Amino acid sequence: MPHRTSWPLVFSLFLAGVAVAFQIGKMPPALGALQADLNLGLVSAGWAVSIFSLIAAALGVAFGAIAARFGPALTVVLGMVLAAAAGAAGASIDTMPLLLLSRAVEGFGFILTVVSVPPLIMAVTAAPDRPVALGLWGAYMPVGTSTMLFLAGPLVGLYGWRVTWLVTAGMIMVSAIAVYLASQKVLERSQAIRVRVPLSAVLVLARRPVPLLSAFIFGCYALQYLALFSFLPLVLIRVNGMAIGSAAALTACAALSNAAGNMAAGFLLRAGVRAGILIAVASLAMGAGALIVFNEAAPAVLRIAGATIFSAVGGVIPGTMFALAPLIVPKPELLPGINGLMLQGAAIGQLAGPPLVAWLVAASASWEGAYAAMLIAALAVAGAAALLQRAVPVRQDASI
To answer: From CA 216, how far away is CA 241, in angstroms rounded?
Structure first.
């Protein structure tokens, strides 16, 4: 393991995650233009958005196995090139099946990239810096999606969705080149990255209690997160009478605050705070924030404050889980496998969250009907965190 951390490469790898997350953030502002251009119904447009989650829910651990088998140094760049190529090709499509195909290939590239980065970060960081570096990595999703939410609106409005697709693909490709150039000399010295493991050794993680518990935590966290931010703009518009543009911008800002929690997790872990405590406290804070967001009597400013608390404090959970992952696997080469499994758990939660909350709200004829799902998921994460702490009773500081 290195005695000094290669921070330029760590930041390049973080930006790689941000770049592939642009593919998720580009969709919501472009939905109207896609519907008009391709004559799509609302359900078809919804499939174009959710196909990322479907692929990750079905294939997350399998892609982790592929990364472990062929080496993350290769698969991270391959994943980015695949995502960029699919995005560029998607700019020229004119039918719904081709749109879904291009989005599916983008999803393959996305998953291959994000399961490959954590083991590379492990390989180029000194032990005391590892929690901070992995906590930074955990922020790739909120930073990437929120940034693209801001950028895609003007891009689609001025130049259309096809140009937006090409710009996104170009940014991913530039990031892929940067990662490739930054990684060559550093990764050549890392023996760990050159180790190859059988696919079966990675897939067996999906049958072990602690990795499954980690996936469960990610799933319950993602269920809450996507459900709340899917419906927050609608609540602000219908309950608080806010304009669409203001509601979207404030929602994006609250979602972006999630990055602060991810980054804070690394510093807290390095300071010796136990992972189980961090996850449990953050989950309970998410539950409290959700109570404020879905309270129909809450004024807009209080609702946004609740969403920001929910997002910022909740961000500690993925940041902690990414830092804890090396302690869950028996050997470093299996790290892509546990990351794939956690990604799979998150995707299942993302698929289940919005429909479940929508059903509860419709059944109760009130936004406060969402309380049950949000609080049960929050308490489930807190309970799972206690079990995880017992199973991995190591102080999450310089030992990671």
So the answer is: 37
